[in-house]
Amino acid sequence: MTPAYKRVLIKLSGEVMAGPQRFGLDPQRVQEIAVELDDIHRLGVEVAIVIGGGNFFRGVTSENQIERVQADHMGMLATVINALALQDALEKCGCFTRVMTAVEMNRVAEPFIRRRAIRHLEKGRVVLFAAGTGSPYFSTDTAAALRAMEMKADVIMKATKVDGIYDADPVKVKDARMLPEINYLEVLSRDLGVMDFTAISMCRDHNMPIVIFNINVRGNMRRIVLGEKVGSLVSQLQATTP
């Protein structure tokens, strides 16, 4: 089986690391995710990962009146915790990994250096990018878009809890329709909440395709990298929805 993509960037939210408990780390869920990542890596795909920290702390939605810049830095540290946990799980699968952070913390991870990160991927290591962009006011969605451009990834695969992009909230609207394909401008103009405005705009400007998929369906990552149509594709396609 020949993969459809040579190099992918996978965006994982912190929430998927928490499993059903919705806070902290669920070791079983982390291991399940690691097994699926290892599976696509064994196909010969170069795998980079950007991970969020919402299972511990979400700076922008903090209700405890912590100053925004301070809260965002706390959120960056939460992403490092998740990256280290996933690194451990991947290495238990026999996967060689590197954690690279946008905020230097040399005792636990490498600082992000673009050329070094690319070299790690070329050597067959899974690279986990933590601490977002290293700057406040930027989400991990934006970090994923940025790292995908820097790594020259073929696609961004964004893991979610739903099957793809819907024209309305499927939890609230019974007849919400899933959109298998949609273009960047539609996502922005209809405010569909796929990724934040900055991330989608960056992907549009650099023609970086995004696949939105349900990580809770086992095997979805493998199907995507093998070229199957899974979830929703965001690209430069002509508008197809009213």
List the helices and strands and how they pair.
Blueprint: E1 7-12, H1 15-18, H2 27-41, E2 46-51, H3 68-92, E3 97-101, E4 110-111, H4 114-122, E5 126-130, H5 140-151, E6 155-160, E7 165-166, E8 178-179, E9 181-183, H6 184-189, H7 197-205, E10 210-214, H8 220-225, E11 232-235
Any overview of this molecule?
By secondary structure, this protein is of the alpha/beta class. The protein has one domain: 3-Layer(aba) Sandwich (Carbamate kinase), CATH 3.40.1160. Helices cover 36% and strands 19% of the residues. The strands form two sheets. The protein has a nine-stranded mixed beta sheet with strand order 4-3-5-2-1-6-10-11-9, with helices on both faces. A two-stranded antiparallel ribbon has the order 7-8. Helix 2 packs across helix 3 and helix 5 runs parallel beside helix 7. It is globular, with a radius of gyration of 17 Å. The mean pLDDT is 93.
CATH class label:
Alpha Beta
Mean pLDDT: 93
Run of helices and strands: EHHEHEEHEHEEEEHHEHE
Low-confidence blocks of residues: none
Strand content: 15-25%
Note the total helix count.
Answer: 8
Please, what is the CATH homologous superfamily? Acetylglutamate kinase-like
> How many domains, in number, for the residues?
1
Number of strands: 11
Termini distance? 37 Å
CATH architecture tag:
3-Layer(aba) Sandwich
Query: CATH topology, which one?
Result: Carbamate kinase
Main-sheet strand order equals 4-3-5-2-1-6-10-11-9
